[in-house]
Amino acid sequence: MMHVAFLLLIAFTVAGAPSKKVCSYQDILDYLNLTKENSVYKATRPVLDYTQPTIVELDIILYAILAVIEKTQTFIPFIWATMIWKNERISWDPDQFCGITQISVPTDMLWKPDLFIYEMIQKDDSPRNPYMYVSSDGEVILEEDMKVVSTCRMDVHKFPFDTQRCNITIGSAIHCADEIQLHAFSNSSRATQFSREMMKTQGEWEFLQLSVSSSNFTYHDRLWEQLVYTFTMRRRPLLHVINFLVPILFFLTLDLASYFIADHRGEKLGFKVTVLLAISVLLLILNEILPSMSNKTPLIATYCIVIFALMLLSLLETILVTYLMEKSSPTQEKFRLRGDHEDTQEKAKNDNSKKEEKRRSCCSCFCEASDGERRHELLPLAEEVHNSVQSAESRVLLLILDELKELQKTLNLHFSCRVGEGRSVQWAARINKAFFIFYVTTVSLFLPLIFVEWNT
């Protein structure tokens, strides 16, 4: 009897306990009649009163800086974008559905804000998120990650020590401010902090700040609202300094050191031409980096052009000094030709001296003839010998006079050449010294000024 009573008590206890309800996400979809074929949720803006705007909260986090291309003025970041808005046609009581407060549905089942990026110049090919979250109070959350290829107006005046600011402006395509209002979910400091925490790669660029601001503009008598996200980043210049600025400085040092090479040799001229060609190659590389148009002349272009101009002036100065130093070469040739002419005249003089000695010996022989010869034969012969001796002496005097004149001309020519040669060498030394002082002074003033301008 007691056993039967115990069984009856257990049966009544189990029958009186409430059964646990089982719920699913499909129950909510069936309750809302939310299907792909139902156009109520996606055909129009989800408001019950059309005069009320749809408030869209937007949040953007920078995940990576993929590329910053100065030549094409292109900024390519990878971002995470979150959009939050309210669909007034959606609501349910979580208590009726086992406490479910949020479900995920395909993105093509609900209306989405028609937001786009103004600076975007290339369609994003990255895969889209196929789902969005829907809350019991009608709040819809859509998260997207995308690669943005955008245009950016860059200032390369201080390249490679530059800081760039690129904007991503987001607005509605067809809805004005009376229909869609854009609000930033995170302020500038919070967006910057989250971006630094989530940043995976920066490459050449160091991320500094992500600032958020709103702006309005009027078009066709309608007010349009925008959210502007400004990405501030600073270039890491070490690679460009090592590969570009330092080699040019080395070439400048080599050009200055070339002043210690002798001017009368051809090696100095060839050395300067080689250094100038090396600078030209670096300028071609710079042309591939910098954009074709810029508001200000890049300081690195000024740096290269000034150094290139100094080296060009140095090359022209070397050509002038070499010309002045080699002006003495024709003078030495004149002296050589003059010496050959003097040797020829000396040989002629020796021949004439030998002939004169023969005549004098003949004369002495005639004078020493025997007194036994007849006088009427000696008198005509003596007169003839006397006349020949006088003519020979006249020729010798004339030769001596000619030699004196030639000697005077040679001395005058030698003196004038020595004076001209001394002036040329003097002018070459003065020009070389003056240009070296000008070169060193210009470089000493230009380099500190250009580096100060880079750092300010």
Summarize the structure.
The protein has 8 helices and 12 strands. It is α+β, with helices and mostly antiparallel strands and 456 residues long.
Care to describe what's here?
The protein has 456 residues and is an alpha+beta fold. The chain has eight helices and twelve strands. Strands 1, 2, 3, 5, 6, 7, 8 and 10 form an eight-stranded mixed sheet that branches. The protein has a four-stranded antiparallel sheet with strand order 4-9-12-11. Helix 4 packs parallel to helix 6, helix 5 runs antiparallel to helix 6 and helix 6 packs antiparallel against helix 8. The longest helix is centred in the last third of the chain and has 81 residues.
Helices and strands, with pairings:
Elements: H1 2-16, H2 25-32, E1 54-69, E2 74-86, E3 102-106, E4 115-117, E5 120-122, E6 131-135, E7 139-147, E8 149-151, E9 163-172, E10 180-184, H3 188-198, E11 205-219, E12 222-235, H4 238-257, H5 267-289, H6 299-325, H7 328-367, H8 375-455
Parallel strand pairs: 1-10
Antiparallel strand pairs: 1-2, 2-7, 2-8, 3-6, 4-9, 5-8, 6-7, 9-12, 11-12
Helix pairs in contact: 4-5, 4-6, 5-6, 6-8, 7-8
